[in-house]
Design a protein that fits this description.
The complex is a heterotetramer, with two copies of chain A and two copies of chain B. Chain A contains six helices and eleven strands. Chain A is of the alpha/beta class. Chain A has a single domain (8-104, 147-215), classed as 3-Layer(aba) Sandwich (Glutaconate Coenzyme A-transferase). In chain A, the strands form two sheets. In chain A, strands 1, 2, 3, 4, 8, 9, 10 and 11 form an eight-stranded mixed sheet that branches. In chain A, helix 2 links the parallel strand 1 (20-23) and strand 2 (47-50). In chain A, helix 5 (100-111) packs across helix 6 (175-181). The longest helix of chain A has 12 residues, at 100-111. The mean pLDDT of chain A is 96. Chain B is an alpha/beta fold. Helices cover 16% and strands 25% of the residues of chain B. Chain B has helices spanning 5-13, 28-31, 85-93, 129-135, 196-201; strands at 21-24, 43-46, 50-54, 75-82, 99-102, 106-108, 113-114, 139-142, 154-155, 170-172, 176-181, 184-190, 207-208. In chain B, the strands form two sheets. Chain B has a ten-stranded mixed sheet, sandwiched between helices. Chain B is globular, with a radius of gyration of 17 Å. The N and C termini of chain B lie close together (12 Å). The chains are: A alpha/beta, B alpha/beta. Chains in contact: A-B, A-C, A-D, B-C, C-D.
Chain lengths: 231, 218, 231, 218
């Protein structure tokens, strides 16, 4: 069982053009910084990216957009990115906007082997167009399908050599869901520890979901909205 | 005199009850947290995966791994819990969040809400708003009564693309508190010194005024 | 926010006859011992119990069965209980057997606000009788509905005064799922700690799901199948 | 000579591959854990909520909170992880478990399996068996070729209520290893000294025998 890779380049080496890739993170919090950098370096093109947000102009998925590596974004919120807006308006970039909870639950559905789920989000809105509506107990729900992604790039706080992961604070967000959902999950961790060091009761993502793992380097962890109070 | 945004937040805070779990949207709704009555326990949910959201961190103590749904740096409180986004929206969908407060561009007399998209403008996305409005048992909208052009935002029908249908229960504007039921805005309270006439004038949708309408007291 | 109760009797005082109650645990592992004892003492009748197993003759749900307090059991496996068998054969007890994963996922569905889920378990078997079958991507699935339970009795290792719970080892099993699923969740914990003592990253069940909590007493934690190896 | 239950387990263990996540049912399947080849990493799942199941505890070190799906006291191994029952069956349904080994009362030539219910007898329930057989990509059945009355358990069609349809891929009995495809049992290997004739005689379903059938070596 060889899950450990030396770095992002090696772990992502075989991602082909045209792949559907899930990228963990909410805003710039908990994003796979090393994985994105490796994709940029590698120049993988025609990507369909499933990610709650699309980064900012010079960080996160914004770096992939700048290199025109993204064909389609599937996200819930894509503000704060001028290059994104330019490509969208010029028709270079395809965008599918879906409710955040639906995004999360469609990841979970894939991880749980459920082909579709029902959610009330979007009923009566344009999100419902072309979708099956079904009433349960007097309330309408949309049928939404599980995602089918080739790769997931997720970022955890700690991981062990069997692929078990622990996330920190709100950097957890979509990461454990995407880890469960993709065919091949590549996890980058701030600290890669020997097997046996993580408490089995505290593992958020069991190693069964993680095919490749490496210790990431030089995390910038950029803050999008610094808000503080005086001491 | 019309309420300022702090007074709108303050008025909404009166809807809180001890033990409530509450989701506050960006903007005025966020300010509601500043007016939680002393001694009342209210737990704030941030839909990116936290229950028990605390205030902004002290300068220099910010942590990039700890943000709210508005991407602002925040803190935890004793009793906080983190979870993933599916569980977060799971607890929203299953009705465990007692109150959701959010902003809106338009609300209809049937409780429809539009707050995510203006045709012709760059669309940033709905984020978690559609999930929240479709699921929450109790939704209060905090918004101005009119748009910058002076047009009413309380309409017979929304003109903008909807975020959700028949979901808003109450609206607090700078002029009034209104309840939505039976296809109409029911005027509950007026801002100090604001007349029923002015509210009528600025409400395009069906407005019901029954009896004396009390003034809010601050 | 008054979630803390002194003991099981007080926390369960208002459970009426005829309630649908979820009971956590797998076999005798992680069962709400104090809650069951309180139900026995209180004599609540006509219960519909949702629980993976039905205990043994003199422990767990078996104690409720002995007092004829259970009208219906919804379980996946009910062996090892002679009184259960007697009541079942005599028609005193109604039993609905459902696959274990379906049981778990129907709990989860309730907790996640999903009215129904799709699962392949039971397709082509008598479990599928009368149920809607739907094909996704060439595979058949059954439509199964979320449970609707009045109360959940769950047992955790540690809990705090806001209702946050941490489970231990395989005593986790159905407990966090049922905690999310019921209208009123009553958690008993081996150790009730002040708020702030649990690491927010390690909480398995957030307090929002727990309406009542108490520190349980005198846990027997009976072992059903003692298997050991020589030193 | 027919295999004993340990040899059946030993033979099944040869189907393991490095890095496999495996769910072993009660009975003979459990014994497979004893024959994992040296140096091969195989992680055992226990569907009550554990990956990385270890051996039985030393006397006196048993822990009531740590059991397997057969309710036996067990241990963890370095790298173990606990999870709830929904996630456990989630990973089963999504095909993350590479191999499932379980017992059966009957298997049909189409891969149907019956192992949970005998009409007229007290029914204990299906536990997790229906979930496992409906979802696993690779299912091996470990069972005796015939029942105590000497009747074949490899049938054209199951006579007992089904646990799952068209799911069994391989069967290892005391007499043979058989693959199920195209509506037939394909004989792959014989137990040492067991003749093809004997296997034919004890297989009620359609049996395909192509070329020389090798003997298993232990």
């Amino acid at each position: 069982m060889k899950k450990i890779f030396d770095n992002a380049e090696q772990a992502l080496a075989d991602i082909p053009d045209g792949s559907t890739i899930m990228l963990g993170g909410f805003g710039l919090c908990g994003i796979p910084e090393n994985g994105i950098a490796a994709l940029v370096k590698k120049g993988t093109k025609e990507l369909t990216c499933i990610s709650n947000n699309a980064g900012v102009d010079d960080f996160g998925i914004g770096l992939l957009l700048k290199q025109h590596q993204v064909k389609k974004m599937i996200s819930s919120y894509v503000g704060e990115n001028a290059e994104f807006e330019r490509q969208l308006l010029s028709g270079e970039l395809e965008v599918e906007l879906i409710p955040q909870g639906t995004l999360a639950t469609r990841c979970m559905a894939a991880g749980y082997g459920m082909p579709a789920i029902f959610t009330p989000a979007g009923v009566g809105t344009e999100v419902a167009e072309g979708k099956e509506v079904r009433n349960f107990n007097g309330k309408d729900y949309l049928l939404e399908y599980a995602f089918d992604a080739d790769f997931a790039l997720v970022k955890a706080w700690k991981g062990d050599t069997q692929g078990n992961l622990i996330f920190k604070d709100t950097a957890r967000n979509f990461n454990p869901l995407m880890a469960m959902a993709a065919k091949i999950t590549i996890a980058e961790v701030e600290e890669l520890v020997p097997v046996g060091e993580l408490d089995p009761n505290q593992v958020h993502t069991a190693g069964v979901y993680v095919q490749r793992i490496f210790e990431g380097k030089n995390y910038e962890k950029r803050i999008e909205q610094l808000t503080v109070r005086k001491k | 005199m019309a309420l300022d945004k702090f007074q709108i937040a303050q008025r909404i805070a009166r809807e809180l009850q001890d033990g409530f779990y509450v989701n506050l949207g960006i903007g005025i709704p966020t300010l509601v947290a500043n007016y939680i009555p002393e001694g009342m326990e209210v737990v704030l949910q941030s839909e990116n995966g936290l229950l028990g959201m605390g205030p902004f961190p002290e300068e220099g103590k910010e942590d990039a791994d700890l943000i709210n749904a508005g991407k602002q740096t925040i803190t935890t409180l004793p009793g906080s819990a983190f979870f993933d986004s599916a569980m977060s929206f799971g607890m929203i969908r299953s009705g465990k969040i007692n109150l959701t407060v959010l902003g809106a561009m338009e609300v209809s007399q049937d409780g429809d809400i539009a707050n995510w998209k203006i045709p012709g403008k760059m669309v940033k996305g709905m984020g978690g708003a559609m999930d929240l409005v479709a699921s929450a048992k109790n939704i209060i909208v905090a918004m101005m009564h009119t748009n910058p052009k002076g047009e009413s935002k309380l309409l017979p029908e929304c003109s903008l693309p909807l975020t959700g249908k028949r979901c808003v229960k109450k609206i607090v504007t700078e002029l009034a508190v209104l309840e939505i039921k039976d296809g109409a805005f029911h005027l509950l309270e007026r801002a100090p010194g604001v007349s029923v006439e002015e509210i009528k004038e600025k409400t395009a949708g069906k407005l019901t005024v029954e009896g004396q309408i009390p003034e809010m007291i601050f």
